[in-house]
Every structure is written in C-alpha cells, then in structure tokens.
Amino acid sequence: MCESLASVGCKEVSLMGGEPLLREDFVAISKCVVQLGMKLSIVSNGLLIAQHLAHIEQLKPEVVGVSLDGMKGTHETIRGQRTWTKAVEAIDLLKARGVQTTVITTVSRLNYLDLPEIRELLRPKDVNWQIQTAMPFGNFRKEDTLSPEQFYSTALFIAKERIRDRRDRVRVAGAHCYGYFSRVLPGCLWNGCTAGISTIGITSDGGIVGCLSMGTDRYIEGNVRDRPFAEIWNDPDTFPYTRKFSREYLGENCAGCKYGAKCGGGCNSVSLALTGKMHNNPHCFYSIEKRLKRAQ
To answer: In what order do the strands lie in the sheet with 207-209?
Structure first.
C-alpha cells in the first residue's frame, strides 16, 4: 500500500484511527512511509505514546497530533477515566524529545466552554493547537453537535487566539470545518473540498474513500484488496462529487450563494453529517453572518 501511494506521487501519509499505536506493525508501516520519501504524521489519543516514544523519535515524523478534548473532568467524560493525565504527559514527552506536536481538540456542546482553560494549559508548552468541530459519526450524538451560533462563537475564539499567537507560544488553527468567506474573521477563504483531489482516506479494511470523515460506506470507491490503488485513483469515474463538481450539485443551503462555485458547498463530511447530503453545509460563516445581520 505504501509503495502504491508513493507510485502516484503521494507526499504525506497520516496514520490515525482508532488508535494507530495499537497495531503491532505500526513501526514497520511508519518506516516504509519514511523510506519511500513521504512525510509521516501520526494522530494518537496519547495513551501509548510513552512506550513508543523511542520509535517515534527515530521516525522523525513531521508532526504528532494528540487529542485533548477538554480539561480533566470533561476530557474523561468523553474519553474515559485516567485518560487526561496520560494525554497531557504524552504532549510533554513529545516536546521534550523535540517532536513537533499538535494538540487536537474536537469541539462540541460537551466541551466548548473549556476552550479558554485549555488555552492556558497549553500556553507554556510551545505546541500547535488544532480546533475542529465534532460531527455525529460513530458514538457521537447529533444533539451534542454545536449549534451554528456556538460554532460561530468558537470561530471568534480561534480568531482572537490567532492574534495572540504573535506574542504567545501556542499556534492556533481551525480545521477544515472553519472556513467559508467570513466578512469579519481573517483567513477564512476556502477553495472547495479536497476529497479525491489532493487527499484520500484508507479504511482499516482497505477501502478507498475521499475523506475518512465522511462516516459512511456509501462513498467507498474500491478496495485495494480487490483492485490496485493506482487504478482506483486514476479512474475518471471515481470521486465524482469533487472531480466533476458543478453548481448544480449545491444543496438548498448553498444554491443561491455567490461563492457557491468556488466553495463547493463547504466541507462535505460536515454537510453529510448535518443534512444528509453533500455541498450543503449549514455551518458557514458567510450564511451565519447574513442571518445575524438580519436579526439585528
């Protein structure tokens, strides 16, 4: 699989899960990625970082992401008892070994009020901080998803912290779900979903999907156990939702928008999770700001 990715010009491989450090062949796969000239990144819950620290240091990954979903009580409500201390220790261990580290916080109604405290916890640690919104995949309940107003308030928080970045040592970024042409917030340009264009996901059983966050088997384009990856990637009929996108694909939330052709209806995984269809994302700064202005 690694050789197939390298053969089509893949530049970076991110190992995530589930928990990638549970795989017995984690080190072998990681070494293969690096030896083939691709950049390696790892996303972990942090619980097994200590026992794999020497391997991780030798692999020299571009970045290791560690999930931290709140302060102790909140994080452990979401991820289980005795997980918070290990996650924080993992962040400190990685930084002590000189490994570029990103803390990943997935925000929902359960934890968005913890953001200022997380910021203070991370202030002395000299790490990147990626904030992304939780969507109803797997065990996550749809009623715990941020409302559009809460989503926008977290965007305001990110914007404020990015200004503080200039003098502090925490570099804050909103993930793919924070975009879409705000009139107020900086850095919110979006050029459309990259699934099947510059990114793909590989499921644990070999399925190829444009983005692992789509949360459904409906968009599996093939399986590498049945068909060579290069053949799936180069097939002109795969990933039609992005490769053949046109304005006619836009859903009711986006159809009349002046940015629709460029934006493509926002992040498709968020759109699917919230509306059941692609190109229809209601978590859009431009549309939220229009609603807020009308309400004044």
So the answer is: 201-202, 207-209, 220-223
